[in-house]
TrEMBL record:
GO molecular function (one): lipid binding
Ranges of residues in domain GOLD: 498-599
Residues annotated as domain CRAL-TRIO: 319-494
Region feature (Disordered): 115-179, 220-241
Protein name: CRAL-TRIO domain-containing protein
Keywords: Cell cycle, Cell division, Cytoplasm, Lipid-binding, Membrane, Transport
Composition bias, Polar residues: 220-233
Protein's cellular compartments: Cytoplasm; Membrane
Bias (Basic and acidic residues) ranges: 128-148, 156-179
Superkingdom of origin organism: Eukaryota
């Protein structure tokens, strides 16, 4: 039976499809049959009947183009102006963008070296106070030097008591010496004038003068010696002060060098800044959000890091906010065709009065809702791939069906706050914003929200009315990744997202058949749906042998639009042949037919 499984694998199944035009005998649909008109909602902005005011045209250019393209003309779909996501590889950047990235990284490195991001943990005035404190310390250290110099002589006076005594003795001895000199000069003069003086007297006078001169010289020498001793004692503390000052300066230099060689570590969304090339992807988001203006991007980065510290993002990730009832309003499901995770925001869930009250009835509950929304987004972002060329953005699908509308003031306030937070602190995380089931009033609300969004963000928006929502989603997301409620085939059961879905367009007033050949005994299972149904569906097994009979698996019947969106069937094949699925579209509109199948070996 292993050979059967190999032969019947999905890759080897050859499916033959045919478009069979309706027979000429079939009566055409009456021209007065109001099928299309009834299904098209009157106020839906898909129509072009109501002219749009100049401001509306300016603010909703993308919306108008998308809605026109969803009007059913395949040629217009290819002309749709859509945002193309830029590369996250540095090699693919323009030279000016590379230069901006280098400058941005240099600013971030300097901030890390100076520990500027750590200073953002406290309120803005705190860093200023800290700087003043440091300045005061520096000033006190600088003032300390002259203060020590001034105090040095005082210390010497207290301990040695040398200088005042020396000065006093010097003055006293000078006075005594001068007095003795005057007295001796008078005596010499008196002796010289006496002509009858004897030689002995002259000798005595000469001796007296010599004694006086020796006395004066001795006193002068003693004073000079004591001056040198005092000066030497004074110079010693001055040298000690200079040495201490030099040590302080050296300590400051060592401390400064230590801070430079040990930069702080800062992470954002789990990615350390400047640690590897994933950091470049993060920094490019901030640069692109600010049109590659380096200083503006750096300011945005610092503000984001400050906000994340104030909110306590790391702690928030681990908290239980008790918002399990919001799981149906916001959830992640599948990937788009480019591999982006898809987040669904279902505003209609807030029609539930209890849920609305628990989420928005007062400021405290609105803040709790915002914290839960931030927590949900943070957890989703942590699963992204920030390596260059990886998927680092998200697609958001906003379902406005049965939305409470602009009359709900509390919801409007919370939505506006959420948008502002996302724009300020989560730059370039949206690959696309798809709005489905857009009601007539939404353009008014969109004009209120648009001023809070950049032109770059608005360029990523796609809008679709109720009748084109499923078609719009399948344009960007594969059917196997779209929930059943939004026109896809993704649901719990035998099939998963790995089982690819085939999409076929059935022309108006035509039959379409799908032939699934089988060669060995197996169990063939398939599931299918037609958008909007209102077609006839049948299935049969046609054996290869002419002696066998055709087996009716599903008798042809009309499937109404209100019936179960997905039909599942299975058939045990006991002989070679083919299973034929038939879709008969008798309406004047083309239909999108989705199906997928798998085989399982079975014993006789």
């Amino acid at each position: 039976m292993a050979e059967v499984a190999q032969n019947m694998s999905q890759e080897q199944v050859v499916v033959v499809t045919h478009d069979v035009p309706q027979a000429e005998t079939i009566a055409p649909v009456p021209p007065t049959m109001p099928v299309v008109e009834k299904e098209m909602p009157v106020p839906v902005p898909e129509t072009e009947e109501e002219p749009m005011k100049p401001k509306q045209v300016e603010e909703a250019v993308v919306e108008t183009e998308v809605l026109k393209a969803s009007g059913g003309d395949d040629e217009k779909t290819s002309q749709l102006v859509s945002f193309k996501e830029e590369s996250t590889k540095v090699a693919d950047l323009l030279e000016s963008e590379k230069k901006a990235l280098r400058e941005f990284k240099q600013l971030v490195q300097e901030a890390l070296n100076k520990h500027e991001f750590s200073a953002l943990t406290t309120p803005p005035p705190a860093p200023a106070k800290e700087e003043e404190k440091n300045d005061a310390v520096v000033e006190s250290e600088e003032e300390k030097k002259p203060a020590q110099e001034e105090e040095t002589p005082v210390v010497i006076e207290d301990k040695e008591n040398v200088e005042p005594q020396v000065v006093a003795e010097k003055e006293e001895k000078k006075e005594v010496a001068e007095t003795e000199v005057l007295v001796n000069h008078e005596k010499v003069a008196a002796a010289a004038s006496d002509a009858t003086a004897e030689t002995a007297v002259d000798d005595d006078g000469a001796k007296t003068v010599e004694a006086i001169e020796e006395t004066i010289v001795a006193v002068s020498s003693s004073v000079a010696s004591q001056d040198e001793t005092s000066a030497q004692a004074t110079k010693e503390p001055e040298g000690e002060t200079k040495a201490i000052s030099a040590l302080d300066e050296e300590a400051k230099e060592v401390k400064s060098e230590t801070m430079e060689v040990t930069p702080e570590e800062v992470s954002i969304w789990g990615i350390p800044l400047l640690a590897d090339d994933r950091s470049d992807v993060i920094l490019l988001k901030f640069l692109r959000a600010r049109d590659f203006k380096v200083k503006d991007a750096f300011t945005m980065l610092k503000n984001t890091i400050r906000w994340r510290k104030e909110v306590g993002i790391d702690e928030l990730l681990e908290q239980d906010l008790g918002c399990d009832d919001l799981g149906k309003a916001v959830f992640m499901h599948g990937l788009d065709k480019d591999g982006h995770p898809v987040c669904y925001n279902v505003f209609g869930e807030f029609q539930n009065k209890e849920l609305y009250k628990n989420s928005f009835s007062n400021e405290e509950k609105r803040q709790r809702f915002l914290r839960w929304r931030i927590q949900f987004l943070e957890r989703s972002i942590r699963k992204l791939d920030f390596s260059p060329g990886g998927v680092s953005t998200i697609v958001q699908v906003n379902d406005l069906k049965n939305s409470p509308g602009p009359a709900k003031k509390e919801l409007r306030q919370a939505t506006r706050q959420a948008l502002q937070l996302l724009q300020d602190n989560y730059p370039e995380f949206l690959a696309k914003q798809i709005f489905i089931n857009v009601p007539w009033w939404y353009l008014t609300v969109n004009r209120m929200i648009s001023p809070f969004l950049t032109q770059r963000t608005r360029s990523k928006f796609v809008f679709a009315g109720p009748s084109k929502s499923a078609e719009t989603l399948t344009r960007y997301i594969a059917a196997e990744q779209i929930p059943v409620k939004y026109g896809g085939l993704s649901k719990d059961g035998e099939f998963g997202t790995a089982d690819a879905v085939t999409e076929i367009t059935v022309k108006p007033s035509a039959k379409h058949t799908v032939e699934i050949p089988v060669t060995e005994t197996c169990l063939l299972t398939w599931e299918m749906r037609v958008m909007g149904w209102d077609v006839h569906y049948g299935a049969e097994f046609v054996p290869s042998s002419e002696d066998s009979y055709t087996v009716i698996i599903q008798k042809a019947r009309k499937v109404a639009a209100t019936e179960e969106p997905v039909i599942s069937n299975s058939f045990r094949v006991g002989e070679p042949g083919k299973v034929v699925l038939t879709i008969d579209n008798t309406t004047s509109k083309k239909k999108k037919f989705l199906y997928r199948l798998k085989t399982k070996p079975c014993s006789d």
